Give the backbone structure.
Amino acid sequence: MNIFYEMASRLGFYKDVKNCLLKGFTPCAVTGVSNIHKAQTAMALSRLSPCLVICDDEASAIRMTGDINEMAGEQLACVFPAKDLNFAYMEGVSREYEHKRLEALSLITQGKCKIIAASMEACLQGTIPQDKLKEFSFEIKTVFCKHIDSPFEETLPAPSEGGQLVRTSARPAGTGRSRCNSVPASGPGPPPP
């Protein structure tokens, strides 16, 4: 058992917050404690249900996520960033925050993440409903290509989920036959054309 979970269960305010959650008195707020104790409390409470941690700003949310993941020893928390609002036409607008927001929502929906840390600004911005996110989400399947009789063939490490091997070749183009095979991945594929 992780020592941080055990230490959190001994904190007086953790017991109070846990009792509130178990009785259905939500949302709960923890104030007057240091950030590391807030992170530890959120980490321990995530065993009961997914948590939303509202932080002062995005930098605080990033620090909170880092503290939680370090104590847990796994990716238990992720950051839900605020959207960039552009009120004028700009030719080169980054969509990075949109991708990060969708990734955080996907992780919590799939159960791969138990805690979302976000600023108040990010919480007040609209997002896609959970049922629509599930309906229009799909996973890209892994594909491996193998050159036959290639002296440069190498095997890459298997991905963390799915456990499939990926083979690649350093053989120059046009110097031999190649064969590509689909490897099944977990989850549904893309919708049919």
